[in-house]
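Sample entry (269 residues):
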Amino acid sequence: MPRHAYVTLVTNADFCEGAMALVRSLALTGTAADIVVMHTGGVDDARLAPLAALGAILTPVDLLPTSDAFNERHARSNIHGKNPFTKGRKPAFHTPLDNFAKLRLWEMTGYDRVVFLDADTLVLKNIDRLFGYPEFSAAPNVYESLADFRRLNSGVFVARPSAATFADMLERLDRPDAFWPRTDQTFLQSYFPDWHGLPVFFNMLQYVWFALPELWDWNSISVVHYQYEKPWEAGHPKAERLQPLIDLWHAYRSGEGIPDRASLRNPGS
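Predicted structure, serialized as C-alpha cells:
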C-alpha cells in the first residue's frame, strides 16, 4: 500500500497551539494516513507531548541552511517593510524566515505522497482523496476578489517527497540576490509554475467569511485556514467579524462542543 502523510510545521509555542486543533481535527476525520508534526526546536517537549497523545508523529527538523545574506533579506523587518501586509495583520510571533522549513517535507521519502497543512488550519471532513492529486497541487489565494485565482496559497498543498527535488529547491532558493516576498508561497509558485489548482474549499481562507460570503458554504468546505490573525490571539482586530470561526477553532482545540456540520450556518443565514 502506498504510504501517505499529513504534515504540518511548528516553529514556536503559538503554532503549537494551532497544531493541537489541526491534529485533533485530522484525527476526527478517520484518516488512516500518518499525521506528522515537523518542529524546529522552538517548543519544549512538554508542549509537544499532547500532540503525540493525539496520534501525531513528532519529527524534529532543522531550519534550512540558507546564507546569512538570504536570512537578512528575509528577516521580518525586510519582508514586512518592502511588501507590507495591507489586508490583515500578521501576529508578532510570525517569523517569515521559518516558513521555508516546510520544504523539509520533500526529504520524507518514506512517503509516496504528503499533504501539507499550515498549523493555522482546521480539517472539517475527510480529505484523503487529496493523496490522489498530482504534485504540485494547491488552492488559489482567494480571499478578497476572484482576481486572486492566479496566485496559489501554500497553506494546503500536495507534494511527492524526493531527495533530488529537495536538493534542487535548495539550489534555486538561495541564489545571489534571490528575494521571495511571500517566502515559501512565492518560491513554490515559481518552482511549480504549472501548479494544479485545487477547489477553494480545500483551503478556505477565513477572510472569505466577510469579504466574499457568497463563496462560503459549510456543506462544501473541507479545510478552514485562519490566515493573518490567529483564533488563539485574544481580542485581535477582526475578532468580532470572525467570531463564529474563532468559536469553531476553540471547540476543536479543547475537544469540547465540536458542532455538527449540519448546525453550522453560512454568513448572512
